[in-house]
Each structure stands twice: as structure tokens, then as C-alpha cells.
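We were asked to recover a plausible sequence for a given structure. The inputs and outputs are reproduced exactly as logged, with field labels preserved.

PROBLEM: sequence recovery
POSITIONS: 86
GIVEN STRUCTURE:
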């Protein structure tokens, strides 16, 4: 996969951690950041468990998120109906 050069503004302590991890593992800072981003990819878990393509995994994740938010809003509405006025 092609590499793209970019500039990021990140917390000093995070950058220090990246530099330390790179030195300890003899990896580049880019490799450390890429590894961290890949491990944080929320769609990777869906793709690996379901054998879905990237577009299908994104669609499924979006639908799931929408459903979770709807359920949360319904619970909040139910709770506000059941509150006793002071």
C-alpha cells in the first residue's frame, strides 16, 4: 500500500511514548503509529469476524451505531417520563 506523508498535532507525552516505543522495538515512529491506528480500527473487528468487505463493514457499523443511539434516546425518554417532580 502506498505511503502518504502527513503532519499531525499530538500531545507531547504521546509523541514521547511513540519515540520510546520506536527505539525499544527498533521500528520507525511511523510503524508505531500505524500499528496503533490499525489496532484501534473499529471496523477491523467486524471485517475479521464476518468476512465482510470494507464498504459492507462500514455500512453494518453505521447501522449498528444508529440502532444503539435510537435505543439510548428511547431509554432517556422513558426515564424522563418516570421522574417524580420535586
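RECOVERED SEQUENCE:
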Amino acid at each position: 500500500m502506498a505511503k502518504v506523508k502527513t503532519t499531525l498535532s499530538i500531545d507531547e507525552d504521546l509523541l514521547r511514548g511513540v519515540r520510546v516505543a520506536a527505539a525499544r522495538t527498533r521500528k520507525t515512529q511511523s510503524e508505531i503509529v500505524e500499528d496503533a491506528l490499525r489496532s484501534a480500527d473499529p471496523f477491523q473487528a467486524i471485517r475479521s469476524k464476518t468476512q465482510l468487505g470494507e464498504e459492507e463493514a462500514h455500512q453494518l457499523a453505521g447501522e449498528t451505531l444508529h440502532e444503539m443511539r435510537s435505543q439510548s434516546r428511547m431509554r432517556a425518554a422513558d426515564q424522563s417520563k418516570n421522574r417524580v417532580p420535586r
